[in-house]
């Protein structure tokens, strides 16, 4: 039935192109989401064809709707069961009082990884090689920077697994062999999944659609469970709870890799274990990158797209100076203060820890303050900009916006809880004033940045406007000197190249703002991802909310806040390119 629907879709396409070819080319939607959208095109044809073609379109719509409904229901059942079971095992293994250990969690993860790899191999060897299995490819899915990030984070995650294998081997004489098997299986999984996503992320599969959707759902769920496990281990390792409630802190601080009675058989064991924790942030980001790419593939299963609708744009950093320079200075200053913060916190001296908190708070206030100011400038430019909003449906862009808004909730939660605690207690002191200022500015900065990025992602690229002018006016490039569009001889794709003249001032300002925000978000990702925990080093929130509640708030909200910064970097890069 699915094959019949595809054939009818192509037949309708041919009928339209024969009758009024020019009209169809001009009015054809740039991104055909489903065959049902052909309803908008049939009005361009002659009235004599309306009845028969309309019946065909409605039949295609019914077929596609029935196929999608059954597949989505099955995928939802698989995803919910895997995620809830995984969440229960990950949460249970974090407590001593529950008879679930890290070994049980790792056995579950090994099963998931093996099942996911088996499906990926089946798809690569059988499904993707069938005739008409991948008739369409989504040009928006899996851009080069996303695949490069996946490859980089995958490589660093592989190094982390090597360190974990070296650590676990030293405990084989007194601990479970599962702790050796899990990083080995995960290392193989990293290689297989990275290859799979690199090659097939743009596929719009038209064959074995139900099985492919279930396989992609399994891939998505597996990566999310791996992400939950890594976040839990890393959070408990970084959480140094003060001795205000001894029982709770001892129960929660279960970051040790093995039992204290089991000693490593060689001296370098501790070094490998500590080194692996520094690579956890990259493994966390890898799992999220892979989850996002698997979701886009899932949305593209059975999707009919226009292969010639994507416009390729080359990345250029020419004519942008102030934003990158200021951003680099912020990154260097942030790294310096972060190192001072970590070193002083290790001493345990009250004077040095207060000084470290003072420097850390001031640095973060400066960063978010400058980001808020630059974002306001960018939003003003958007008000002066007359580019149209993008009308086509795009699963990648919808996912980017959803992740951006959802992930920002983690930082919003921590900031608002801090504001309530500081204001309610009414404690005096410069550290409390700085902490409150930082929280208020963070709330402002998050709202402004979300608006700026979402607005930028939904604007038509500058070169699309020029491309439209080029079709109607051969002298368009002379009238708009900021870009030159070159059409390749055998492709309907356009490449953006810079001319000798500088871009318009609005484009330059937007690029400066994007470059600065991109680098500022990088330093705001580095500091919490690699161990900065002022939420526990400054005790005002712990005294107000108690240890157990504040620990839960931070360990839930902070991972989302860390992901928000990395995702903002990716989204700002996209906005920079289309600006």
UniProtKB/TrEMBL annotation:
One of its GO terms (molecular function) is proton channel activity. Keywords: Cell membrane, Hydrogen ion transport, Ion channel, Ion transport, Membrane, Transmembrane, Transmembrane helix, Transport. This is Otopetrin 2. Belongs to the otopetrin family. It holds the Pfam family Otopetrin. InterPro entries: Otopetrin (IPR004878). It is a multi-pass membrane protein. Its main location: membrane. It is found in: Cell membrane. GO terms for cellular component: plasma membrane. The chain crosses the membrane at residues 72-95, 107-127, 148-172, 178-199, 211-230, 277-298, 319-341, 361-382, 403-424, 436-454, 513-532, 544-564.
